[in-house]
Amino acid sequence: MVRTVSCDSSEKGETAVSDLRLATLVAHRAPPDEIFAAVAREVGQTLEIRNTVVMRYEPDATATTVGVWNSETMPLGSRWPLEKGTVTELVARTEASGRIDDAYAVGAGELGTALRDMGLNSAVGCPVTVGGHLWGAVAAGSTAEPLPEYTEERMLDFTDLVAAAIANADCHAKLQASRARVLAAADATRRLIERDLHDGAQQRLVAVMLELRAMEAMPPTDPEEFKRLLSGTTHTLNEALEDLQGIARGLHPALLSRRGLEPAIKALAHCCAVPVDLNICVDRQLVERSEVTAYHVVSEALTNAARHADASVVHVDLSVKGAAIRLSIRDDGKGGADPGRGSGLLGITDRVEALGGSLQIMSPVGGGTSLLAQIPIADV
User: Which CA distances in Å does 75 have to 43, 107, 140, 173, 361?
Assistant: First the structure.
């Protein structure tokens, strides 16, 4: 039996104060564990519910207690199966708020038995959704009469703050990881340039210096030998110049600077070992950093298609719509590309996101690989 109780203005005021306290924690980027504990406490104190918990759903159909208020039965860090008949299972299954007002309806498993032993009479749970996906739940239980019917509505305010805290922590972690990758990539690029200079241009220039010294010491009576050495020196200098040009192209494609994005991408397509179907529509001058980012996305995608995908064709569609470059790249290869395993895909993701853009990578096994990028064209 459910008791109908209206929520008066004083109770709403208490909820608002609690929300403010929690919002302050979220705004100050308090650690998630601290926020989970605060949410459990505020729900319990504001709604006058003795037992409240914040649960995180795990991939193996269990839930972990990450925030607790007055619940000895479900201590912090404890892990429980999602048993049918419990409010945590109900929320996980329906992805919506739910309640159980009959203790005898609770399942007979480990969690159900523990809840009955504590004398639970009523339980309410509300989902915590982060980025469109169910993350966990905030649950409250009463050993007295059933919880008021407005309990779910008031708890939803708290779940929104939990979701915000998780999203903030996730964004911060991704930002830190991205910064670390950018620094590592910069260090790797510097090491590569150093190695290429040492093994290529530097060695050739040393050879030129030795050849010039030999020519300097040569008696003027042997012009043919002088010509031969001069020809060899010229050849070595040309090789050193090619080495330096190759390094420069790796840092920034000269064609992109001289002629723009469309010719540079056409050059990439021409050099690709896989046939490329190009559809490019650029009707305005673009910011250099946006062009460079789009160029590197196409370059990485074509390289992967040629080296790893066993593709027979790659489709590249690039257009400018509004304030962004829209880029779609699709191949008919074997798929299965994992951005987490390759530095190349992570690198272009970091490039796009550094400009405030987005990059989606879809690569089902056997279904080819698709990249969808939106790259802002305004200065940031």
Answer: 17, 20, 14, 27, 40
